[in-house]
């Protein structure tokens, strides 16, 4: 089986870790011999924008549709305002390719440590299902009376029945597929009393079709407290675009480092390619130094391979990653002293033993 | 000096902890003899709503204006939808009385422990300045096509120049008054590219008047990571209504318990009374059992007394509270086994020694 992968390293450490991930994927494919990857790299980045005036060419989104999956590094660079870079690269891809789910698993990998006192490996094992197409990221709003002394800015969060139903169904399916069959829905409908109330209502409606799933509801503020003080009580979590963005970064930190956390931007209809990216950003301060933690990138690569149907390869890659973290070969953010290449070499070596 | 206090115990443990706070305040006033409190209690609550159809009477907000300060317990009860209870009691008070600042200090009190490995007392000492009048809590939005299969819900976040400027100025003044003179501004203007961009711009404009304050900017998601992994690097923090709501609960958890954290809803113009409330909610599960942690309520009472101009009394009350936590007299959430009354008795005893 040959899979066509579009690779978009993007900015900063996105470049370092994408290179590392592609090496690991190549080693995986060669070692197992069960699938091949044909990778095309796109230089869509802030550098591109600064020299040529665009992130992707006009037909960029159409080009991506020809691929089986997209591997994404990171985007964002100090000399371009963040809302320009994001709304010209990562966010249009998520939206145009109908990647309405963003799956963000978090657990404490072997050999790594949670910053929480007494939080051991089995105590924190979550999957955050993030709504990825609307809500607070709907993109509407504006500024009136700009540069007067009475300017007004707005942001319109939009929640649609279709959008809510499909993310809830995905979240319930995810919860059902996990041993504990537990789903926590996050909301802030006490203060955000309009659209968010629809979010709540549809959650309970969809729940009727999943009576085997154990549900509960948390306000987003109280949820952070529960994540810190009672991590074991959580399993699958569903939240809006913004809430889940915040909670997933917190989750990564509580599992040890933002550098290990993966994400999958999925179109569950499979009519469009899905996109896989570590949740960390472009980290301009350490870009190009070869010291970025590639584990989040490897884990994202494993999720990509899994989505393509290569379960065994994905499991093998995860084992290889954890053998390396367990052996203490890790970057500074995890308390080690290895650089990106050393970690990558070690993971490749583990893959070769599969 | 006599101060007129409006007390609104509200729901659940709000009742328990308000009673405790009023006892402590009475002891403080009697012991020091420097000021008197004349307290009027209002039974505005979910129980009131369920029997009489309203939280406060029609002239409730006008009644409150006659007081020097408001002490608030908690609101929210399972038999009333949260958005009804909040938008009929706490949120109208904050808005109508121009309490546009919500100040939320967090530190690790003597004798209490952070859940973070190696995080000692001096390592976490923050003040979160929350915008309290607009943003994601502006209250506009709605649902169209309700109960069709294509309903749409919206929430409109509104950021105004007046609203942003005044909260930024307050935040800079707060930062300036603290030893480290450090202000971190939180935003998500990379994804929320309209109103939130105004938030950023005005921050930098106001900053020009505060060159002695050291500033930086964080995205709200990355901010949670920094709070967990590098608490010492933060001091004063300014964020929108929703972002600060989330971050302040997280802050309380990282300092040991949501039960200790205070908040001050301030009208800095002093044309209206300000309101003081612990940040925890009504906790229906432990309501009326006499086991709620009253420390957040006491700390809020200290902030009230400070706002009224009684600095010495406020400092004395804080000392009394910390003498008690240091002695290990604490409720279950802090690892102790004392009930509300035991903690309250102990604090009163400490006050009598002042
Ligand atoms: C880069 C940015 C648009 C993004 C988001 O907010 O979705 C990032 O924080 C993430 O979590 O993937
Ligand atoms: C009760 C609720 C309206 C409130 C808020 O969201 O402001 C609470 O969470 C708080 O932090 O004071």
Q: Count helical runs of chain A.
A: 12
CATH class of the largest domain in chain A: Alpha Beta
Radius of gyration of chain A: 20 Å
Helix content of chain A: 40-55%
Describe the structure.
2 copies of one chain form a homodimer. With 354 residues, chain A is of the alpha/beta class. Chain A folds into 2 domains: 1-100 and 262-354, Isopropylmalate Dehydrogenase (3-Layer(aba) Sandwich); 114-142 and 153-255, Isopropylmalate Dehydrogenase. The first copy, chain A, contains 12 helices and 12 strands. In chain A, strands 2-1-3-12-11-4-5-10-8-9 form a 10-stranded mixed sheet, sandwiched between helices. Chain A has a two-stranded antiparallel sheet with strand order 6-7. In chain A, helix 7 links the parallel strand 8 and strand 9. At the A-B interface, helix 4, strand 6, strand 7, helix 7 and helix 8 of A face helix 4, strand 6, strand 7, helix 7 and helix 8 of B. Strand 7 (152-160) of chain A pairs antiparallel with strand 7 of chain B. The complex binds 3-isopropylmalic acid (2 copies). One 3-isopropylmalic acid sits between chains B (86, 90-91, 245, 279) and A (190-191, 221).
């Amino acid at each position: 089986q040959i899979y066509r992968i579009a690779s978009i390293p993007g900015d900063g450490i996105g470049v370092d870790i994408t290179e590392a991930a592609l090496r690991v994927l190549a080693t995986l494919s060669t070692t197992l011999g069960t699938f091949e990857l044909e990778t095309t790299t796109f230089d869509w980045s802030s550098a591109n924008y600064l020299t040529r005036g665009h992130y992707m060419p006009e037909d960029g989104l159409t080009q991506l549709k020809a691929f089986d999956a997209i591997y994404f590094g990171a985007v964002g660079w100090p000399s371009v305002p963040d809302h320009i870079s994001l709304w010209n690269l990562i966010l249009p891809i998520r939206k145009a390719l109908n990647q309405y789910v963003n799956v963000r698993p978090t657990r404490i990998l072997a050999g790594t440590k949670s910053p929480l006192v007494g939080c051991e490996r089995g105590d924190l094992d979550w999957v955050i299902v993030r709504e990825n197409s609307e809500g607070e990221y709907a993109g509407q709003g504006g500024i009136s009376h700009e540069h007067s002394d009475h300017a007004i800015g707005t942001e319109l969060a939009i929640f649609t029945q279709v959008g809510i139903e499909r993310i809830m169904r995905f979240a319930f399916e995810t919860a059902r597929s996990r041993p504990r069959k537990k789903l926590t829905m996050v909301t802030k409908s006490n203060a955000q009393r309009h659209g968010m109330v629809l979010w709540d209502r549809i959650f309970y409606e969809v729940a009727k079709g999943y009576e085997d799933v154990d549900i509960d509801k948390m306000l987003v503020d109280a949820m952070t407290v529960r994540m810190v003080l009672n991590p074991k009580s959580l399993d699958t979590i569903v939240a809006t675009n913004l809430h889940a963005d915040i909670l997933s970064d917190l989750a990564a930190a509580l599992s040890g480092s933002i550098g290990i956390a993966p994400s999958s931007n999925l179109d569950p209809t499979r009519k469009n390619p899905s996109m896989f990216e570590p949740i960390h950003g472009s980290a301009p301060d350490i870009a190009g130094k070869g010291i970025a933690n590639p584990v989040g990138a490897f884990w994202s690569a494993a999720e990509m391979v899994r989505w393509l149907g290569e379960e065994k390869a994905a499991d093998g890659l995860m084992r290889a990653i954890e053998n390396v973290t367990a052996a203490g070969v890790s970057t500074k953010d995890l308390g080690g002293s290895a650089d990106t290449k050393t970690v990558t070499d070690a993971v490749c070596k583990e893959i070769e033993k599969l």
